[in-house]
Every structure is written in structure tokens, then in C-alpha cells.
Amino acid sequence: MNALLFVEPGDDLSLQALSLARSLGDVKAVSVEGPYAPAAWAAAIATAAGDADAIVAAGSDRGNELLAHVAARLDQPFAANVIEVDGDVVTRVRWGGSLLEQARLHGSPKILTVAPHSQPAAEAVPVEVLAVPADADTSVRVVETVSESGGGVSLRDAKVVVSGGRGVGSSEAFAIIEELAGLLGGAVGCSRVVTSAGWRPHTDQVGQTGTKISADLYVACGISGATQHIAGAKGAKKILAINSDPEAPIFASADYAVVGDLHEIVPAISAELRRVRGS
Amino acid sequence: MVLTADEQALDTKHLGFTISPHEECGVEEAVRIVEAGGGEVVVLTLGPSEAEEQLRDCMAIGADRAILLKTDGVEWDAQATAAAIVDAVQSEEPFDLLLFGNESADSGNYQVGIRVAYALGLPVVTGLKKIEIADGRARVERDAGGPRDVYEVPLPAVLTVLEGLNLPRYPSVPGRLRAKSKPLAVVEPQRPDSKLEKLRLVVPEEQGKQAEVLGTGADAAPRIVEVMQQLGVA
User: Fold this and answer.
1) Do B228 and A184 make contact, defined as CB atoms within 8 angstroms?
2) CB-closest option in A75, A144, A156 to B145
3) I want to staple A257 with a disulfide (CB 3.0 to 4.6 A). Which of A184, B192, B207, B211 is the partner?
4) Contact yes or no for B216 and A258 at CB 8 A
5) Where are any strands of DSSP class E within A53-151?
6) What is the pTM of this model?
7) A261 interface with B at CB cutoff 8 Å
8) Please, which residues 1-40 of chain A have a Cβ atom closer than 8 Å to chain B?
9) Mean pLDDT for chain B?
10) Cα separation of B170 and B179, whole Å?
């Protein structure tokens, strides 16, 4: 058995995908050089795959996109976000992780991406850098990259995310969330209720259809903890939930729990941080 | 989450259905594009007859007509879904723009829009949070983890979108009334054998997390800061 693995250099998710790919057979790891052009990159991957039995990538935005292109090119089925392979049966993540599906993947080669954080990262292996084939379609490519103005810590990469939900109550009341996030050098997040109400921009939304975070600590304030929200928060190493309702589902996903009114607790945390820092 | 006895679906006896967030933004975007530049918005879904309700919702916010690719309720895999959509699209006058949600909330296959684009020979850009249409071209942006990548494609094209693209409007009462009389065509495609053949759904084992209670109310602040220091974030 031979597996072709697409890797993004320096990406931990690619090393996690390598762990699963190894269970399928001998792995040839490849990346593609040049500006990102999905159809052209997929052509390079499909060509390099030759008669490989499997084509694998991380279940990242790019991995899922590229292997969908590869699958469409080859007219083969594609299983996204797989956590386990047993013969031709794959177990994959659905509903943002709330449900698993076991499915028979009838394709050849087997085309699949690996669900983030479902495998340990493997040691890096040598990567062959592919050139885009001369006749590949590069008409869809990145023409420009725009940086976010204003800077700040990006939600996806922040070490700490302080997040507010319906319990915060208003756009103005997010000042206490911003203050604490600022003191911790972290980013502000929120739940979907908050963006739908227009209290915060969608770029702050943590969840299945928002940003999936990977912080060391996620502080969830006044967030009930719907499964779609947890899907975006569970990449955090630790979750601290602050909620006035002791029955809130968020506590089932939390490592630390504080019951009470966030409007008192959050400013108290900020004050305590200032106190211990002696300012 | 509770499964049906045959483990093929969620038990939805006590649940409602709704359009996925990404698709909801796609419909809103289509309506805005046509409001600005003229044209027609056609909304299409593949699903059981009950999906008419979501199609009517889309027409209530401004879509002009709808196509239901009616199934018997059994789930179709992504390849079969894409093929049925391609057939439906090819039986219409050519569209300038085909909008899809980037991935569905339930099956999360990440591929239907891309497959449709390949079958129709159209360019495709996925995961978009901004779309500008001018002079027969689309200038679109996708989040690249902080910075945003910009693409430009000529129309016709396939674009797949994410929530955050816009803030969808709520349907008005007159909108809902108008939606009742807008045209809805029903087509019953034949389901081919699944190549990603669902065997069963499984509810994942609970992680069995037991949260450590740090206290109640503002009095918990010192203990919270202590934990933050232990985690190296304060």
C-alpha cells in the first residue's frame, strides 16, 4: 500500500495527518510551490499520486479544498475529516464533531482528509516539492493578499480567548470582555447569538461556522454552550466557563467552572490581575 | 443527540429544520447582487418534500423561484448530490453565478460546489467572506487566518461562501405572503449507489470531563487568576 500525503510546510495538522497516513502504508509526502491556485495544485497532486492507493491531507481549509478538487478531477469519492480507517471503512466527523459516521469509501485511490486534533503529530519527514504542471489551469489564483488593518491578536492564533455570549447582554457590555482580553494579551470572541444580534462582528465568532480556536485558555462568559459553539472552542487546551446558570451545557465541556454573574466576575478578574501585577 | 433505531439519521421527531448558516448567507448575497444589478435569483435544494419550507423562506427574503430536487428522505452522498444539481442546472438557461455554502452543517463534505464546477467546466473559489461583482468578473476574498487572500474570476463561476459574508435579513410578513405564490418546481432525480456509503452514525463517547469548580461569584477572582498563572497565560 502506498499513500500520497499533501503537507503544508510547518503545519502541525499536516503532521497529524501523517500519523494516519502511515497506518495506510508507505507515505510519500509532497507540497506544491508557487502562488496558491487550487485547480493547478490539485493537478500537481493528482499527477504525483500516480498509482498510489490513497491520497491524504489535513482536514484544514486548504486540505479539504484541494482534495475535493483532486476527487472531482478523478471522479472519485472523497471522505472529509476522517479519524480512523479500517480497510475500506472510514470513521469521519460530522455535525462539527457532535456525531461520527462510519462509511464505506468505494473509491480508488482512497481520497480522504484527517480531522484536526484527532491524531498525534508524527515526526516530520522529507517532503518532495512539486511544480505545477505546465498545462495546469492557473486562472483561479491568489492575486493579492490583504492584511487586516488595526492589527490585534488573531482569534485563530491567540493564546487566550475571552468570549462572551447572550449573557453579556449588549454591545456596550463587551467592554469588560475586551478589558480582560487586553490584560491577558488575548483576543475577544463571541457566540453566534452575539453576531446575529449585531453586538460583535462575525470575525469574532467562535464556532462551527465561525473561527475554530487553538488557545491555551478559552474563557466562556455567559455562553450556554451549544454543540455548534463547542465545535469551535474544543481546540482550546483548557476551557473556563463563567455562567449564572449552573445547569448550562457549557459546564460539561469545561475544565474550570465559576457560577455567577459575569458582570461582576469578569471585572473582578481584571482587578485581581492588576493587583497581582502591582499596578 | 439521539439517533434513529437504524442509526442512519438523527431522530428529528422533536426537532425543527433550518437552512445551514453558510447557505443562508449565500441566499442573502444572491438577493443583494440581483437587487443591485438586476436579474433573477433561483434557489435550489436536494431533500425531502419538507424542504419546501426552507425554499419558501428563501423566497420570502427575495429569491424569485425555487427548484426542489425531491428525495425520499434518504441521505445522498456528495457525488450524487452534485450530479443531480448539475442535471438541474443544465436544464435551465445558463446562470452567471452559482453560489453554494462552503460545507453543510450536518454532513460537512466540503465538495459539492467544487464537483459541480468541474462538471460544468466553470472556475470555482471556495470559503468566501466577501464578493464584489463588476464588469462580468467576481472579485472575492477568503480568510487566510488573519490576512485575506483575494481572487478574481470571470463569470460564469461557482463561488462557495461562509457565514460572515453578510448579515442575512429576516423575512418580512409581506415577503412571506409573496413567497407562497412564487413558482416552485419539483424534480425527482434517481439516486445512484453511494460511493461514500453511510453504514451508521455513532454518538461519540463523552469525554467525561468533570469541571473543577473555582468558586462562586466575584469571590472566585483570586483563584481564577491563580489558575491562569499556572497555565502560563497571566
Assistant:
1) yes
2) A156
3) B211
4) yes
5) 54-58, 78-86, 89-94, 99-105, 110-114, 128-130, 142-146
6) 0.87
7) yes
8) 36, 38-39
9) 93
10) 13
